[in-house]
Amino acid sequence: MRRFKFTLESVLTVRKKALEDARIRLASIMNIFNKQNEILNEMEIALQNVRNDSERYLFGETFSPCLVSNYNSFASKIIQDITTQKLIIEKTKTDLLRQQELTKKAYIEVKSLEKLKEKQKAQYDREVLQEEFKLIDDIVNSRRTIA
Question: Does 102 score more than 80 pLDDT?
Answer without folding.
Answer: yes
